[in-house]
Amino acid sequence: MFTSRPVIGLTIGDPAGIGPEVILKSLRDCKLNFDPLLIGHMEIFQLYNGLCGLDWSFREVSSVSEISAISNSRTLPVYSLTPKREIKFQPGKPSTDGAALAMEAVATAVSLAQKKEIHAIVTAPIYKKGIQQAGYMFNGHTDYIAHLTGTDDYAMMLTGEGLSVVLVTIHIPFRQIRDQLTVESVVRTLRITHNGFRQFGLSSPRIALCGLNPHAGEEGMLGDEEITILQPAVAQARAENINVTGIFPPDTVFWDTVHGAADVVVALYHDQGLIPLKLLAFDKGVNCTLGLPIVRTSPDHGTAFGIAGKNQANPDSFTEAIKLALKMCGGTP
């Protein structure tokens, strides 16, 4: 069961990327109001500890209960994966072995969270092409964790610097976006957003819905999706007492939201929501999956293979992901 402080599982991500580095730097920089549990491969963490000139020591553990026996604040517990695999890799050089290790760490963390042995998960970046080459036919963490937890209704939220964005569609080719936009998919995302932000303490979250077309379609002149899909979705959501406004032009809604007009924007596709978010919070954005039965956050950046192992990675986004995970599980950031 839980220790006296929240336990947060930190998954290694692709070992050839910056995941191990940002994990170790985040733990160096942030106040430890929780017990971290590194999930991955101890030798890889030791390697990056040396490459980055850090002074952590590590202890391999096979159960969460062993954390309480670690009295040295400079010693980090590393949860053993079973079976333990030998990994041959170089920083900056992705491999299928590394991608498989990253996914095994995620599966282990989810299992621990489902058994309530840890309070939350913060996942370091994975290489999406690599995980598919390793046999994991998912488009990323979000889909995989939803699969592991048996969750059908979930949504990706990104947040940082006063802007929160939830996406209706996620990692799909641009030409498929229109086909996946339906009244049902939009209402489902609005519902998940409403429930998720109520868990954050807002009794009636103010949701701004983004249009698909320039100027939100100009009353059908520039596209009819606002009329045929989004307006019926708004009407249905309002009938469920969801506080949604819009449909707003994509080029103004984010500015208005940052300046207090809404609590969150529901955007229709990946880049529509992430471009403004990353302009505001490139180094501090956080990804959170709404709708899961467990708490999961991650930094809003990728593996950055080009700087892996060079002690150049900025840990701020990972630190913010830890803070959000703590907030969501009732801890103190």
Automatic annotation (TrEMBL):
InterPro entries: PdxA_fam. SUPFAM superfamilies: Isocitrate/Isopropylmalate dehydrogenase-like. It comes from the Bacteria. Keywords: Metal-binding, NAD, Oxidoreductase. The keyword Metal-binding applies. It is an enzyme of class 1 (oxidoreductase). Gene3D superfamilies: Isopropylmalate Dehydrogenase. The keyword Oxidoreductase applies. GO terms for molecular function: 4-hydroxythreonine-4-phosphate dehydrogenase activity; metal ion binding; NAD binding. Its EC number is 1.1.1.262. NCBIfam families: pdxA. This is 4-hydroxythreonine-4-phosphate dehydrogenase PdxA. It comes from Candidatus Auribacter fodinae.
